[in-house]
Design a protein that fits this description.
about 75% helix; mainly alpha; single chain; about 220 residues
Length: about 220
């Protein structure tokens, strides 16, 4: 049994895996699954639905985690402070725009939601815009995989016969793009720190642990 047949046989399980992967992060997985959807192995719309709700539920969970346990987590994992620092500064400056876009920003994707919870951002307001943002995110990456598979299929020929090569091409493309995106993100963060555009991680970590500070969005 090849990979394509395996995906078709266990379609419902793949949607569940997509939900779980998107709950954690999942960009690469959603792109690969979107490529499989082009071959008809998965339903692209059910895939988007699973990624949408997985991403939404995940970030709501991380938001509550930050709200109730954020200060303790920072003490336990001090390496998270730089990402939290960026997230806190950006939500104070851009508010809704940041919530709609943080999934696409290197360095804050995994800490933005807990940082907003730590910063006292209203839960209901975050849930509303997070729901919209998760929809945009799921569509962006699922359709990226779908159209990448279409492009590689046109170059290599019969999709079914070249399924493995096409998926390998999509995966390689994603790895290269993410590498350059991450590198660009690191450079941007260093420029923000050097220019004073963001506060020091230490100062923001202290303010996050103080309930009277950083009440953004209220």
């Amino acid at each position: 049994m090849d990979v394509s047949e395996l995906i078709r046989e266990y379609q419902n399980l793949f949607y569940l895996i997509t939900f779980g992967w998107a709950f954690i992060e999942g960009e690469s997985f959603v792109i690969i699954a979107g490529a499989a959807a082009f071959n008809g192995d998965l339903n692209i719309f059910l895939l988007i639905l699973a990624a949408w709700f997985g991403s939404f539920c995940g970030d709501q969970c991380w938001f509550l985690l930050g709200k109730f346990f954020g200060a303790r987590l920072l003490k336990r994992f001090p390496k998270l402070e730089s990402g939290v620092a960026v997230a806190m500064n950006m939500v104070q400056k851009y508010d809704i725009l940041f919530i709609l876009s943080f999934r696409f920003i290197y360095g804050v994707r995994n800490v933005a939601s807990p940082a907003l919870g730590m910063n006292g951002y209203p839960w209901g307001r975050f849930a509303f815009f997070n729901f919209i943002a998760a929809f945009v995110w799921a569509n962006a990456f699922a359709w990226t995989g779908y159209f990448l598979a279409k492009a590689f299929g046109e170059v290599l020929g019969d999709f079914s016969k070249n399924f493995g090569y096409i998926m390998l091409g999509v995966f390689g493309f994603v790895v290269v793009i993410l590498f350059f995106v991450h590198r660009a993100g690191k450079k941007r963060y260093k420029r923000m720190v050097a220019s004073g555009e963001i506060d020091s991680p230490e100062a923001l970590a202290k303010s996050a642990s103080d309930p009277e500070k950083g009440q953004a969005g209220q």
